[in-house]
Amino acid sequence: MEELEHTAAAFAGEEPLAEEGEGKVAQSDGAEGRAGRRIWYFLREIVETIVLTLLIFAAINFLTGRFRVEGPSMEPNLHEGQYLIINKVVYKLHPPRRGDIIVFEHPQNTGRDLIKRVIGLPGESVDIREGKVYIDDVLIEEPYIAYHSGYSSRYLLGPDEFFVLGDNRPNSDDSHNWGVLKRDLIVGKAWVSYWPPGEMGGVPHYDYPESVAARQEAGAVVGFPLGSGLAAPKE
Known about the structure:
Blueprint: H1 2-11, H2 22-63, E1 64-68, E2 83-87, H3 90-93, E3 101-106, E4 109-120, E5 125-129, E6 132-135, E7 138-139, E8 153-156, E9 161-165, H4 175-178, E10 181-182, E11 186-195, E12 201-202, H5 212-222
Antiparallel strand pairs: 1-2, 2-11, 3-4, 3-11, 4-9, 5-6, 5-8, 6-7, 9-10, 11-12
């Protein structure tokens, strides 16, 4: 009779009743499958997050660096203990400019980084007379200086050579001590101060005036190419 009932149900288009326990097994298998998929999705999201974090960290390290100011050589514009973010890409787009504050490897100790301001550019002569700086015999204005030096020296810069000085001239280990700076030693341009909170903000670079009149005057007087950004000689 039981076999006849199953056959009759099949002809009537009805599903035969499951044996006792069969439905529970199928339901259990479905729940375990969904749980397994959730665990797999969760683990995959963790791995993707870790990989993305590592890629972002690598990109940030490639594009920027961190630097801690040590000593008073950049007073009064940068102070002992300030933490800076360094832009390591900008000088791949254009060369350093006069007035930029840069981080570079010490020419006599490449395991040590220094921070100074760019004063002389490739091909120029730098003449320091009792603390005043002349570029190709033209006195440049330096409003960022609070402490002038009393030393005198003269340098002629070759291709890819720069002359850098600290803003605190009497207390700075810079080009007046060890000479010119090769471009391949430059790490990057000081960009942002992020610590301590009271010093947060952009690093105080100096943009030399590049008005048409100033460029023409400088070019006419001492033969500078236009765009040199030099200040006119003072009386």
